[in-house]
Amino acid sequence: MDSPFRFRSQPGEMALRNALIDVGRIAYDRGLLTANDGNLSCRLGADSLLMSPSGICKGRMASDDLLVLDMSGTLKSKPTGSRHEVSTEAPMHVESYRQRPDVGAVIHAHPPYCIALTVADVPLRADVLPEVLATLGSVPTADFAMPASEEGATAIRDLIRQHDVILLRQHGALAVGADLEEALIRLERVEHAAKVIFLATLLGKVSTLPAEARDRLLAMYAAGKTRGAKE
Q: What pTM does this model have?
């Protein structure tokens, strides 16, 4: 049976709507999103996106809150009577899909430990935890961009081509995946890593992995990316 967020075949629109609602609720409940911050999207066929609207709590969405956009970020359709507007962060999502044909879902969240690292100007060291290095490779921090502007798309344009998770300086994180499950797992993993680094810093020392282990884990990451490209 398919996961609620991972589909072996192209799902119908209602299944994707339900999946987006559930992922938004999980991210909100885990503190990766707060208030009405953040936004989520997924591909809806070859030329459309399904995306959360502006100004709504992602932990309390309903199916008819979600908007259908074209691949330029322009509204295609919304439920009759809906007053919701397209998220001002839609350009960042559109840019992710444009640069990465392999990406099927994008989550922009506000995980507090990730944000804390960028506020303190501390890079997220991927070579601290083996699971991060093996599954995410490196996690860069983008230049600061004004929220709700085209600057967000520009800031992530070059980075998203080679990275699955990007920290947004003093603003949050962007995670992409082949589907919503993969994007959510990557988001959860990077926030866990940021929390571990934060706590280790308080304890006085952040130890990195041995060089030999780093090389082997990076090889695992590269192999996984190659395998995924063939599937």
A: 0.92
